Amino acid sequence: VYATQTWYLDADNDGHYVSSQSSCASPGASYNLVGGSLGDCDDGNGTKWQSASLYIDTDNDGYDAGLATVCYGANIPAGYISTTLGSDCRDNDAAIHAPVQYYVDGDRDGFGSTATSLICSLTATTGYSTNNSDCDDTRATVYPGAPELCDGLDNNCNGQIDETGCAVTCSNATGLNTTNITSTSATLNWSAPVDPAQWQVQYKSVAPGSKWKDVAPAPLPAARSVTILGLTAGQSYNWHIKAKCGNTWTSYTNSLTFKTLKNSSPSARSSEINITQTEESIPVLRLYPNPSRGEFMIDLRVADSKNEPANFELIDVTGRTVYTGNAAVTNGLLQKKVIVSPLLSPGVYMIRVKSGNRSYVSKLVYEK
Q: What is the model's pLDDT at position 282?
């Protein structure tokens, strides 16, 4: 051949070439003399050549979960659409595409408060309800139609306290046990048939001369566990608890002993976040739902009726702050709905709330 010819780069021979050049002989094995159409987004796959921004629609309901650049062939591939009816909050379920309003059920008794939240679910998930008829959303034994207990509370929300025929009397905690023990923290757990007016938990080292420390502010009446932080590695501790029934405190339970780990393994250390001992633990700070899928409520109740600004931060296992926000304490109460980025990695995080000169921390499990 003495004349130059146009050679087309089409490695997969699908009739869509990437580039061309003129030469007397073929520039390489991937070139041929058949032109076809210019443009191939995947020249190693003969079934794909065109690239476009398509809407993601995994459940094929016509609603999308965002845009993606897709390389495909003659037809739009399954899981994508070129036009959309709107955004989809759950693209793996064709039965739902828009969030539904539910009521926060902080004590998880099936009856919600007046606080609302939008959740992408056709049924109320844990920590939420379809009604807002609970007269006290901090106590699981108080809700419309609940058995009336002899505990100084209006359990059935009928406006009467301990009416005739009330059942179980308020008593101290039983079934004490300790879980989630690390080198610096432990979770104290207990059982109780009814909520008292207040709990008081104390702990101390078994070392001679050690004094009892109050877990303050005390856990909420509906609480059945509390996590203490800032413990010493390889140290044995005692803890006990008492309950306030009406206006009278019970005696403290017999003490239960546990021992912190001597040395955390690298994996254990990675799951702990260093919190200073000046910070107060879970008793007054609740997060719900927990585990969370990215949307949750912060509920903080301080010891007195303060009014002051507050801020909060979400901290990952490396101690890095990944989310911050502002809030306010009004009459001793802070309630804030938080929606974190869907790009956040699943795992265990700490929420630290700062109000005045105090900090409060609690653990949050984030799931997708």
A: 35
